[in-house]
Amino acid sequence: MAFLKQTILAALATTPSLHQSTNGYYRSRPDLAPPQLNITIPAANPNGSEYVFIAPFPFPMGGTLERPGPYIYRKDGDLVWAGTGYYGDGAGDFHPTTYQGKPVLQAFQGIVDAAHGVGFGQHVLLDQCYQHVVTSTAGNHRISSLHEFNVIRGETALIEVFYTTPANLSAYGGNSSQQWLGNGNFQESTVPLGSTNINSGLSRAEAWDYFHINSLDKNEEGDYLLSSRNTNTIFKISSTDGSIIWRLGGKYPTFSQIGNWTFGDQHDARWQPQLSQPGTEVISFLDNFGDGTTTFNDVSRALVVQINHTDSTATVLRKATAPYNLQALLQGNAQMLSDDRIFVNWGSEGAFTEFGADNEILYHAFIQTGSVSYRGFLSNWTAAPKECPALVALKTASDLVELYVSWNGDTETSTWRFFYVNGQRKTRIGHVDRVSFESSFTWKSPFTLPSSARFVAEAVGANGECLAQTSLTAITANIELPV
């Protein structure tokens, strides 16, 4: 009874509060510094179970970003998971997928060369505890590229490999010094040899990247959809003999584009079989608009296009145009969602938008200035991290302590319970609802806190079950966060 009375009195003496981080720093996890989101059009349900998945890195090159890497956010910009330490800094194409029937996270990690638009590394899958599942590497003595890792029906994956080879480029206007070719196999380029230092062909680092694959997809029949940025063309490739079945756009199009529409420097071409009718195929992609030297349109947009094989035409079924006249020179993707929504990551513009069924803007945000994400996604995700929650106890007066707790990557905690530990006795001192990445709780003790004071916190699920507990945490002096 004495213990119960003490617990009730202690609970009455507390003041729960929600702690918002200062400039992305958290008292319980000062090692984390997630890029901030500037939300210009708030979502209607910012705290729902659908999260934003991005992997920001500095852009333009030389930009400052304290902690590049993959991140999960709520739509209100609140952090869910920081991938620092789980993936390397050069991360990209980060989002949930399914592997062998189970939800996993996928991401590229390696070296990103944004100036040349390439990345070299490997692709890593993590489970719902953020533990390693498998690492995918390219075969035939090649290195996987940033551009694509597309898990097909949960078993296999499409990857893109970029490699350079010496070649005689005289037929394309090259001189004796221009002899390095970036691997590409399908069509002449609209990017002339030597048009920029990046494509000069003078060295392996400046190889003539005349084709530039940036997405791969596979349909139920086994044929491939391939986007070639530097030819402004989307190809359908036969899985049986590797031949070109058709071309959309570019210098040698198979189809007439009804309405005289154009596109260029596109990314993320995907099959959309649920929208197809007999005799047609439907695809989606991001029309970047141009590359800074050649301009096809005055603004970037996501397009859904119907290919009609009866009359050899291509018709735009849907167009989601970027707000603020955004012009994404590089990178980006367009994700088709349920309820006919589209989520578009505007690549080098460092922004993303969710569109409704009528292309109305439901949500828009900019990533922290000086950073971009190669691709971005919206998805549901459920996780229970293997790492323990983090707790810090800051003594602000002889009888006052501020407790800050977080659990990086957790999606299931609804309440935090706090306990004072004195020797073998564990006394519950209160609780708070979990409403953000870091929660705080202030406890006014009925006695002067000794230097031996210790605290723990428990993560509690929606059904009242204990999901995890912090380690026993000693009381420390109050500290000021960076500003």
Automatic annotation (TrEMBL):
<dbReference type="Pfam" id="PF14269">
    <property type="entry name" value="Arylsulfotran_2"/>
</dbReference>
<dbReference type="InterPro" id="IPR053143">
    <property type="entry name" value="Arylsulfate_ST"/>
</dbReference>
<protein>
    <recommendedName>
        <fullName>ASST-domain-containing protein</fullName>
    </recommendedName>
</protein>
<dbReference type="InterPro" id="IPR039535">
    <property type="entry name" value="ASST-like"/>
</dbReference>
